[in-house]
Amino acid sequence: MGLENNLTLAQPNCDDYLHGLSDGEFYYSSKGGATLEERDSHQHAWFTPYHHGCPVPEVTTIRITSTTLLPAWFSEVISRCNHLLSLSENWDTYGAKKININTVVDMVDILSEIMSLDMPMPSVVPTNTGNVQLEWHARGIDLEIEVAPNKYVEVFFEDQNKVLDSWEGEFKFDPLNIPEHLNRAIEELNRRTA
Question: Which terminus has fewer CB within 10 Å in the chain: N or C?
């Protein structure tokens, strides 16, 4: 899987948010989901708006090209990203920074590299530093991946069943060199939740 990122301008109504899957002409709202035919097409384009105001909001187009099917929950993750990008400075009333759009793009790219059809949907949460965190808490596994600018990640993994050792670490994400302990954690998560 890969990610292409382009910046374009659009002039939708201020209340319009273009969410979702497109084959170049088809759009749907975040309340809907991809049909089976669209998910089976193996070619996915997610249009994620980032509103700077009216009447001409800036729209970021994120294109994900996949050689495999995307999980059914992927559109919900994109919808959550749209919500996080709408948060303003101080969204937590304790001085939190605005979520960085480049970090969201990096997070989607990282998720597209590690996800599989049998992986459970992650929670996507903002951090007060403007980063985004992916979280899975299921069947005794706690896996948290905080994504910072330029694909630097901080990972925390705990296995309450003690099948795998707990660990944490920081590194720059490289899809060609994913640490073995992260691969094992993801495989165990997928195995337990299948």
Answer: C
| 143, amino acid identity | L
CA torsion sign for 69, 139, 76, 108 is: negative
Query: How do residues 54-92 score in pLDDT, each as one tens digit?
Result: 333 455 565 655 556 778 888 888 888 888 888 899 999
Task: Name the residue among 111, 118, 115 with its Cα closest to residue 146.
Answer: 111
Q: Which helix (H) or strand (E) holds 14?
A: none
Number of domains the chain is built from: 1
Residue with tokens 């382009």: 6
Burial class (CB in 10 A: 0-12, 13-18, 19+), 95: exposed
Integer angstrom CA distances of residue 62 from 81, 110, 146, 157: 12, 13, 20, 29
Residue pair 150/131 in contact by the 8 Å Cβ criterion: no
For 98-134, write each residue's pLDDT tens digit.
998 889 889 988 998 899 888 999 999 999 999 999 9
Contact between 142 and 133 (Cβ < 8 Å): no
7 Cβ contact list (under 8 Å, min separation 6): 58, 60, 61
Write out the residue range of the structural domain in which residue 185 sits.
Answer: 2-193
